[in-house]
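Researcher: Please predict.
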Amino acid sequence: MPQMKSPIQYVWKCMLLGLFMATAVRGQTVAPANAPGATSQAQSSSVSITPPLIDFGAIKPGSRQKGEFTIKNNGSTAVKIESAFPSCKCTTISDLAGKEIPPGGELPLLASLDAPRTPGEKDAKVFVTIAGSSQPLIAKMQGVVQLPLLVQPSYIDALKGKLKGVVEISNPTKAPFHILSCDGVAPNFVDFDPAKDAARDTYRVRWDFSLVPDGQLQQWWCVETDADDCPIIPFRIRHETTGIRFDPKADERRWFIPEAIAIAGKISFNKPVELEVEIESSVSKGKPQPAGWDTIRGVQSLNPAFAAEMISSKRDGDRVRIQFRFTALKSNSHFIYAPLVVQTDTGQGRFFVAAVVAP
């Protein structure tokens, strides 16, 4: 059986490849390796890609950003594209392998970047190899996923024994708002007393996991607000137990859940809402995928207080988008962090639904 690689191995492979290429490439032009006097500097026979970077700026969660690069042959002889591939499965590009560019000619490179549903920076690269050249062209894309309320930092750094910290949450419109809870309990503010102080447009809130038992730390820390367009802010918790160790059977079933949280926002009891979650193949690029990994058998709730049922699923490359219906039947808290599972022919994986039950 072909050797499969875990999501962590795949990410490290991409990072090392990117580091190697970033070291090797000094500019965004390349010259054929067998051309007389070829160097890393731009020459009349070089090929260039413009722009070298597309910055989408602030982007919406879950959106798909589309960009177009231009590959130009600045030389006097035709060149052939040997390969083109992205650094991340979140990136889709046009098929350029085998295409030729005549002298002075241009070829468009279409690329799209799928933004995650949670806040933070997102970037990807596209590597384009020209036949006869030892150095690839690199096209870069980047953006910052922003919610209506801004956060700093966009994740919780709980690595290497760090169990306490502070995040800042602000409204870019300067309109005041309230922070109601953090994971369903009263917030621990810095320099703010909700019993005495008026609502603000910026808050600093403490997080503290020092009392969480070993092995029980969740992947997400959720802040509840009274902002209609941003009732829940999810913070990814980076900790030794919230990565691959949180999902130890991902390699066995050959897929994982890139973002194991679905934000339902404000909901009501016994009124279903439609949500989406994605699974992604953990098999390395070019390796055969096991039969049935993408056959979705259902979505189920692990807690009888909630109900879930699959609506549909659709495969898109190495990912499968799953639409499902979620219903809160009862809860002792207005904040919900409900455990669910996705079931395929190769196994099941856990994710969570975060919601606030309207009174």
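Model: Residues 1-45 have pLDDT under 50 and may be disordered.
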